[in-house]
Design a protein that fits this description.
It is built from five helices and four strands; from the N terminus they run ααβββαβαα. By secondary structure, it is of the alpha+beta class. The protein has one domain: Endonuclease, Chain A. A four-stranded mixed sheet has the order 1-2-3-4, with helices on both faces. α3 links the parallel β3 and β4.
Length: 148
């Protein structure tokens, strides 16, 4: 089926759609933090011009939640059959941006964690691993699930 509008108009329409940070994976992670009693986190707080999905500012931890399609998941990311060159370029740019942002935060003394969409679907395994990772990074004590 052919598109009924011009590529220029389609581009303007798509550019007007802004992210709200309410993806199902982000909401699942927010529920996990609340359930575990993890406090002190903020959503989409700007750090050095970068806006991680979750920030634990006291411990300088940034958590990025990556969708398998948009961030080129090596396990599940697939390029659509139409406009392959466009999507390859778009996803490659997202991956490059993710790398730059992680490097910038690390250079400034931040710890970065990436949670993939497919990991949150395997809820128990992924969240146990995330909890362990947060403990290992010194974000929380085992006894008290609050920022130290």
């Amino acid at each position: 089926m052919a598109d009924r509008i011009t590529p220029e108009q389609r581009s303007r329409n798509m550019a007007a759609v802004k992210s709200r940070g309410n993806t199902s994976t982000e909401l699942a992670l927010a529920r996990f933090f609340r359930k575990e009693g993890i406090t002190g986190w903020r959503r989409n707080k700007k750090v050095y011009g970068i806006r991680p999905d979750f920030v634990l500012p006291v411990r300088r931890i940034a958590v990025f939640v990556h969708g398998c399609f948009w961030h080129g998941c090596p396990k599940h990311g697939q390029i659509p059959k139409t406009a392959k060159a466009f999507w390859r370029k778009k996803i490659a740019a997202n991956i490059a941006r993710d790398l730059r942002q992680n490097q910038e935060l690390k250079r400034n003394g931040w710890i970065t964690l990436t949670v993939w969409e497919h990991e949150l679907k395997k809820r128990d395994v992924a969240l146990t691993a995330l909890k362990r990772s947060l403990f290992d990074k010194g974000a929380f004590s085992q006894r008290k699930m609050q920022c130290t």
